Amino acid sequence: MVVTGTEKHRWWKECIVYQVYPSSFLDTNGDGWGDVAGITSKLDYIKDLGADVVWLSPIYKSPQADMGYDVADYKDIDPRYGTLADVDRLIHELHKREMKLIMDLVVNHTSNEHSWFSESRSSLDNPRRNWYIWKKPRYNELGRPEPPNNWAQLFKSENSAWTFDEKTGEYYLSLFTPEQPDLNWENPEVREAVHDVMHFWLRRGVSGYRMDVINVISKVQSFPDAEVVLPDQRWQPGFKHFANGPRMHEFLKEMNREVLSKYDALTVGEMPWVREEDEILKAVGSQAGELNMIFIFDIVDIDTVPGRDRFSIREWNLKDLKSVVHKWQRTMAERDGWNSLFIENHDNPRSVSRYVDDRDAFRERGAKLLALMQATLTGTLYVYQGEELGLRNVPTSWGPEEYKDIESTNFWERHKKLHSDDPEKLAEGWGAICRKARDHSRTPMQWTSAPHAGFTRPDVTPWMRVNDDYEDVNAEKQLGPDDPEKVSVWRFWQRCLAHRKAHRDAFVYGDFELLDADDDKVFAYLKTGSEAEAERWIIALNWTGDNVDWEIPEAVQMQEWLMDTVDGKHDLPTLGVIELEPWQGLLGRCHL
Ligand code: ISL
Ligand code: CA
Fold this sequence. Notes:
Layout: H1 11-14, E1 16-20, H2 36-40, H3 43-49, E2 53-56, E3 60-61, E4 73-77, H4 84-96, E5 100-105, H5 115-122, E6 134-135, E7 138-139, E8 145-146, E9 152-153, E10 156-160, E11 162-165, E12 170-173, H6 188-203, E13 208-211, H7 248-258, E14 266-270, H8 277-284, E15 293-295, H9 318-334, E16 340-341, H10 351-354, H11 363-375, E17 380-384, H12 406-419, H13 423-436, H14 475-478, H15 489-502, H16 504-507, E18 511-515, E19 522-528, E20 536-542, E21 548-551, E22 557-564, E23 577-580, E24 585-591
Parallel strand pairs: 1-2, 1-17, 2-5, 5-13, 13-14, 14-15, 16-17
Antiparallel strand pairs: 3-4, 6-12, 7-8, 9-10, 11-12, 18-19, 19-20, 20-24, 21-23, 22-24
Helix pairs in contact: 11-15, 12-13
Bound molecules: 6-O-alpha-D-glucopyranosyl-D-fructose (ISL) and calcium ion.
């Protein structure tokens, strides 16, 4: 059953969201950091691609312990990115282009340099003491103070998730890093302060929020010890006691009632560490009164060992991917929910390196294959900066000093300590960083073949090194004249997005039918609209580097093939077997 009626057509379902990672987008004042003015100067680039909403990773005042996901003032902009006036100008320029801005709402925690936390930690009886989660120590047999439970810190698992504060002799909860103290959402004053921040930006012209780890705002209040699942470690993953906790839905409903219901806003909640359908539908069901949609991690966690951290490696195959896509395309349709579609963001390696083959011979076809899949699935589509160019991971030749992300540096420091005498184990850990570090998607955007890819001035050193392939892989090269014999990744993305919009009934809203779930080489599916003159489309993706014979299902009445990840014109059969080239993806129109 596909969602029908007035609920069906909403702007936040049909829009294409382009995620900008501000520090790496474009530096216009020569300090080596991307800035808001740089984003404003590139709005036509984003608009011409076919995107209509820009999601900014945090630009608020921040000491940058976690690249701005540690906010020190929710109502002001960090000077490295510019000023509030720059944001007002960005909003104005977006609106002029009938585009919208959504901000990154990071309210599970603040920076330890936020004035709220400075006050809270100043004394046991400070009025803001209860804005954060403070606990008395437990004492061990030697009478030494210890953290109140055994939860591991998410970005440094050899440490406790609790940080001891000498001044008041108590611990505060800091799930991610000590510089990111968790707010106490049990306290209505905290929730009110968050609602006030949300109103502030919505009144300023922002059109919604991506909500950072919004599913960990409610913790089990007894703060119990986590089950020991890593016997060789002192601290244990505590997800069971804070992911989708007891009052999360209550807090989200209150947020919707107090703020979001007063605006026509796009809301997408980031919900790592949750898999259960029922739990997810409680947040995104159209009648839930919570969020429009969430980021589900089944695709970006496909190569991670369940329950382990990002640097654990699980080998995956095409059938895994097909079943995940099938599951959520069907579930959201049948249970009146709504999907977000993404396979790349600032927390993940580049999709062309992760899911297809980024070697020169195949990089462009692979990137186009990923574009064709995403642009034809039901849900709201998110494109991450550089994904539209087919940017790849940094080369394995780069040394550890090029990796800037706290999660990568913490992991590598620990891995070296644990395995410095075991070259094989050491190499395994380094291999995990080369495959999955968040840094891969944080290198500066590649605009031109000029020094630093035109991200900053030639005489300036960017905060992070530009990928070595920028002379070949950059926007300027891909925006050249439209050559049917050599369609760039950017051009192909532009066509996919135009097609998605022109046929939204089938692509944005349509019914998904998987063809041949057991085929481990070709990912083929049908998309069918539900309106009058509904259309049916077939998508066939050769997810291998080999030639593969693929038979068009008899039941499918082909009309014509319209898009092809392989350049040039081919008279492809509309009946029987097609020999698909490596990474060849096709989009065809069928009779109903
Ligand atoms: O990198 C991860 C842990 O392996 C991701 O799971 C990530 O930490 C998680 O999805 C939460 O991400 C969000 O919150 C973090 C911040 O570092 C990420 O950049 C943000 O997207 C803490 O604010
Ligand atoms: Ca700058």
